[in-house]
Specification:
By secondary structure, the chain is mostly helical.
């Protein structure tokens, strides 16, 4: 019975951490079913995302430091979207006033929502990292993974080599989290896989509601290829490494201030 209660509580905390992504999915569904007046659909989604972001900070659900991290992800994601749309990987066929090189600005919030989830879950579940690799390993690894999303169009795709490198670097790393005062732990690499899989599920929901289209979805919606899990897995790793590194830098700075 206690195990069931713990699982329910864990699921509830996860659901609360996904508040921003849920609002994005709800806005995608709403604007697909109910045509809103005055502005194109993409622009209404952007307005909803901006208002949601403002409310998250104003209500105290997100701190200003977390907003900085989320904004960074918005810019990273938008840059990737512009490049991928230019290369024909996917498209945004709808109209919109707030588009840059064919990419609606709301798309950056889909990446930012991943960072929002990580920040929320980190706080709600009191996440701690065990045997975290050195800074000089983590930062170049995250940068290389991100760059491979661009360079594989012109050179070989080294995602599987990078995935193997992630397993090597984080082989001894664990993430611990608390549910109702009881701490649990999970191999960090396994947590990457779980998050990546659920983002793939979310991607299927998003494309179903017309957030964007892959080339094989132009005639009719179809399931996103399972191979995309590897892409989301690597993107999750980049997201997690950035959030974790910034969290550890902030914790170290706070400890130094207290010590002085």
């Amino acid at each position: 019975m206690r195990a069931v209660k713990q699982l329910i509580r864990f699921g509830w905390e996860q659901a609360l951490s996904c508040l921003f992504p849920v609002v994005i999915f709800a806005s995608l569904a709403l604007t697909q079913i109910i045509p809103l007046p005055l502005l194109p659909r993409y622009d209404w989604i952007l307005i909803i995302c901006i208002l949601m972001q403002w409310w998250m900070v104003h209500s105290g659900l997100e701190t200003r430091d977390e907003l900085k991290v989320i904004t960074l992800f918005h810019l990273i994601g938008l840059a990737l979207e512009i490049f991928k749309v230019h290369m024909g990987s996917w498209s945004y066929p709808g109209e919109g006033y707030f588009k840059i090189f064919g990419v609606p600005l709301y798309s950056g919030f889909m990446y930012a929502s991943v960072a929002s989830y990580l920040c929320q879950a980190w706080r709600r579940l009191d996440v701690e990292l065990v045997k975290w690799p050195p800074f000089l390993l983590v930062v170049p690894l995250a940068a290389t993974i991100y760059l491979n999303f661009f360079t594989h169009h012109y050179w070989i795709d080294v995602r599987w080599w990078l995935s193997a490198l992630v397993l090597i670097v984080f082989w001894q790393s664990w993430v611990t989290y608390a549910v109702n005062g009881t701490r649990y732990r999970m191999p960090l690499a396994f947590s990457f896989v779980l998050i990546g899989f659920f983002i793939w599920v979310a991607e299927n929901i998003a494309t179903f509601f017309g957030a964007w289209q892959y080339p094989n979805q132009t005639a009719a919606w179809s399931l996103v290829h399972l191979g995309k899990v590897s892409s989301w897995l690597l993107l999750v790793i980049v997201s997690f490494l950035i959030v974790a590194t910034l969290k550890r830098v902030k914790e170290k700075g706070s400890a130094e201030v207290k010590a002085s």
